[in-house]
Design brief:
Number of helices: 3
Helix content: 40-55%
Shape: globular
Strand order of the largest sheet: 1-2
Radius of gyration: 11 Å
Number of strands: 2
Largest sheet: 2 strands, antiparallel
Length: 72
């Protein structure tokens, strides 16, 4: 089960993907009210759970893998 912040970030990623846009780390910080370190932890968690593909080496490159089961 996803935490509230994980679900929020995933919703942002899904909504942005509808417009073929990937939000920057700075935008995610602004939209969630978290700092960069907090966003990195959330993205790492989502990547471990295979909701997204993401690495610290390329922090602006986020690829959605699963979207159908998160909006519950």
């Amino acid at each position: 089960m996803l935490s509230d912040i994980e679900r929020k970030v995933l919703r942002i990623l899904i909504n942005c993907s509808k417009y073929n846009k990937t939000p920057t780390i700075k935008e995610l910080c602004t939209w969630t009210g978290r700092n960069e370190t907090g966003i990195y932890h959330v993205l790492e968690s989502l990547a471990e759970r295979r909701y997204i593909e993401w690495t610290v080496k390329n922090p602006e490159e986020i690829v959605l893998l699963k979207t159908n089961e998160i909006l519950v």
